Amino acid sequence: MKNTVIRYGVLSAIAICALNLAGWFLGKNLDYSTQEVIGYTGIVVALVFVFFGIKHYRDKENNGSVTFGKALLIGVLISLIASLAFGILDVIYIKYIDPNFVTEYYAHHVEQMRSSLSEAEFKVEFEKLEAQKEMFSNTFMNFFLMFTTVLIIGFIISLLSALILQRKPLQS
């Protein structure tokens, strides 16, 4: 199990980093909504290795059977590796590759709120945003947010994969 988790976890981590770096650099001139869709799509595509890792374990290492719990564990562990890689990549991106990202995204979000809310609603939402601004400027918080996002998506994919791939051992 350990080798499967490491192999497919590393493959997922490489895929998530490559897809998101490509999305960041090739999509630099796209609007934030489109970039967000590309980012989430990259996360889901990279986490397809969860399914293949569980399937590999079941078919190649465990004589064609795997319990739901074991499959879920394998999937979550693979997702954990991808989550760590993406969290670290995001910190590197925000700190070194595009240090203005948070400021630019914040300004964009404020403008979007200003154009879509009444003045009274804007003031309330702006105060909430200002309260969160410091928190999201924190490097650890950026890491934790991206790590958690990928882990949650990975958990859902692990759950679905475990449901699809679970198979009881054949009785002799």
Automatic annotation (TrEMBL):
<feature type="transmembrane region" description="Helical">
    <location>
        <begin position="37"/>
        <end position="54"/>
    </location>
</feature>
<protein>
    <submittedName>
        <fullName>DUF4199 domain-containing protein</fullName>
    </submittedName>
</protein>
<dbReference type="InterPro" id="IPR025250">
    <property type="entry name" value="DUF4199"/>
</dbReference>
<feature type="transmembrane region" description="Helical">
    <location>
        <begin position="66"/>
        <end position="94"/>
    </location>
</feature>
<feature type="transmembrane region" description="Helical">
    <location>
        <begin position="5"/>
        <end position="25"/>
    </location>
</feature>
<feature type="transmembrane region" description="Helical">
    <location>
        <begin position="143"/>
        <end position="165"/>
    </location>
</feature>
<dbReference type="Pfam" id="PF13858">
    <property type="entry name" value="DUF4199"/>
</dbReference>
<keyword id="KW-1133">Transmembrane helix</keyword>
<keyword id="KW-0812">Transmembrane</keyword>
<keyword id="KW-0472">Membrane</keyword>
